[in-house]
Amino acid sequence: xxxxxxxxxxxxxxxxxxxxxxxxxxxxxxxxxxxxxxxxxxxxxxxxxxxxxxxxxxxxxxxxxxxxxxxxxxxxxxxxxxxxxxxxxxxxxxxxxxxxxxxxxxxxxxxxxxxxxxxxxxxxxxxxxxxxxxxxxxxxxxxxxxxxxxxxxxxxxxxxxxxxxxxxxxxxxxxxxxxxxxxxxxxxxxxxxxxxxxxxxxxxxxxxxxxxxxxxxxxxxxxxxxxxxxxxxxxxxxxxxxxxxxxxxxxxxxxxxxxxxxxxxxxxxxxxxxxxxxxxxxxxxxxxxxxxxxxxxxxx
Length: 300
Description:
With 300 residues, the protein is of the alpha/beta class. The protein is built from six helices and 19 strands. Strand 10 and strand 11 (196-203) form a beta hairpin. The radius of gyration is 22 Å and the shape is globular. The mean pLDDT is 95.
């Protein structure tokens, strides 16, 4: 896709950069992250006057109180907070940053591409395990934790992509993930849905996962490979291959790479077991079964 350079007017650019620098500096300091997130969201949503009135003990309506307290990530829960195997030490910081990312995307400023890409890129440097240079993160991206994601240089992740890092997710340099793609790093047992296995899922350098595709946990998308739209990947896509379908299989080798690519096979090799990430739960952990199903097979 051929693109041209676009820039904001000078004054708008200066204001945007000053704001991003301020938030970045505060997140890099010893200041409490929860407080930084709360105050940033209050101002982004234009609620400073009402928030200060509430903090001063003045009367506010129940609905207003719920809205104002919701800027503080300590007053919210995320789905991943309920996962028993999460890293209890790393999760709180990731939760606060993820809350800022998600609530920023709920503001009108999230549609200002020149501003929003840089703001999310700054947040990714604090949230992800690793984040390379010149990455572009578009609106509506979701993730499980964030701290189990490693992203290389010049990566582009488009609108409404889900990055599941319940296990571990690595995305190589110059990779592109198109709108509504889902990359998973965990699987559920077929019989016991509460039993979860985590894996390392990999997208290689220069790979493309296109629109609405799903990559199953523990798969590897090879270097310079392409996954076709709405495909379901259940095995490793070899380097330089174009794979598509449900389940996806290699259809051809990208023109020009025939001499270095592996030959096309009937099906993608599944190496999920090699990328399994083991974990242990504390014996005294209090859990619950949200389904309450009887998993006993019928008698013969």
